[in-house]
Amino acid sequence: MVARRKYVHKKEGLVGAWVWAWRSVCYIENLSRMKITRIRVQSSGGPYSVVAGAGAIGRAAREIAALGHFSSVHVVSSPKVWRAVGKIVQRGLRFSNRNGVHLFNDAESAKHLGSVEQIARSLCRAGADRKSLLIAVGGGVVGDVAGFAAASYLRGVALVHIPTTLVAQVDSSDREFRGGLAEVIKHAVIADAPMFAQLEKDFDKVLRRDRGALASLIPRNVQIKARVVSRDERESGLREILNFGHTFAHALESVTHYCRYQHGEAVAWGMMAAVFLGHELRLTRAEDVARIVSLVSRLGPLPPWPGVSPPVLLKAMHSDKKTRSGVLRFVLSPRMGQARTYDRVPVDAVERVLHFTPRLIAAASEHLGALK
């Protein structure tokens, strides 16, 4: 069996699901008056649909049953996430097998083969076979590790994702939610100028988790990613734009040993550094720089920039997956709603940006504070 990836977002009944199936689209019925949105994604393994609507978690068992028969169901999550949403997920899945719950540490530093091995061993002890289904419940780390485990366990088993990062679950912290919104801003910068303008207008509602604002925002972001992934499944070109801000972000995470930032917070810093670099290279207009920095700043205070020298950060950047033959490559935005990868970026320009970014943001924050 080829491993399949499925995603579900939930917050107080608001759900979006990514579903892979061999044959037909998996439908999630709307349990309220909120409109259901379906986004079709093309892939080498066959098309699948993203289904966004309200109350879909209550139909999870039926929707999974529509994908076919599975010999057993296993949930992969973290202790923290499972304490928060385990009962809700179990009700939706009609799942009661305690031996089928496999928990691991979901810190960014846990995203390694040791965690994959831990899950594989746990699945083996629980009797999972090639007809079993894995359901990943958690954030990006859980999704990535569970996805790798599902793709490699017995040459691949079926997989469903129930992410809990952006559309926060009942006890998710405000910090986690705002970190997830950094990725929403990223999508607007790279592919949807009108959505960026809408975020500028409605950001206070979004921060309050206004259901109406989120209901339109989530499908729109799924559509952006679906469109990009459909055109470049293997990340050979276009899909790199989804890494806007990530070259800087990964370096920040690395030099702080994945202890200071949540991923979205590092991406927020990374996006601001990226637009400064774009402006330094005369690619990004000053007006766009100001708008992007202003909107990112509305996420709230970020953990401070690390007290390391630009050369140290620059060295960390060379482990970025976009690097080719030792040459750093950056995703930059020449205009709002557009982005592309640039591979001829002067190192001295990058070092200047690494030096001045924390100072410019600190100065801007002081200015905004004085105006309040």
List the helices and strands and how they pair.
Layout: E1 7-11, E2 14-20, E3 37-41, E4 48-54, H1 60-65, E5 73-77, H2 79-93, E6 101-103, H3 113-125, E7 133-138, H4 140-152, E8 158-163, H5 174-191, H6 193-207, H7 211-231, H8 246-255, H9 263-280, H10 286-297, H11 310-317, E9 330-332, E10 340-342, H12 347-371
Parallel strand pairs: 5-6, 5-7, 7-8
Antiparallel strand pairs: 1-2, 2-4, 3-4, 9-10
Helix pairs in contact: 3-4, 5-6, 5-7, 5-9, 6-7, 8-9, 8-11, 9-10, 9-12, 11-12
Question: Would you mind describing this structure in some detail?
Answer:
The protein has 372 residues and is an alpha/beta fold. Helix 2 links the parallel strand 5 and strand 6. The protein is built from 12 helices and 10 strands. It has 2 domains: 157 residues, Rossmann fold, CATH 3.40.50; 198 residues, Dehydroquinate synthase-like, alpha domain (Up-down Bundle). 47% of the residues lie in helices and 13% in strands.
Name the features:
Dehydroquinate synthase-like, alpha domain, 372 residues, 2 domains, Rossmann fold, four-stranded parallel beta sheet, single chain, 10 strands, alpha/beta, 12 helices, four-stranded antiparallel beta sheet
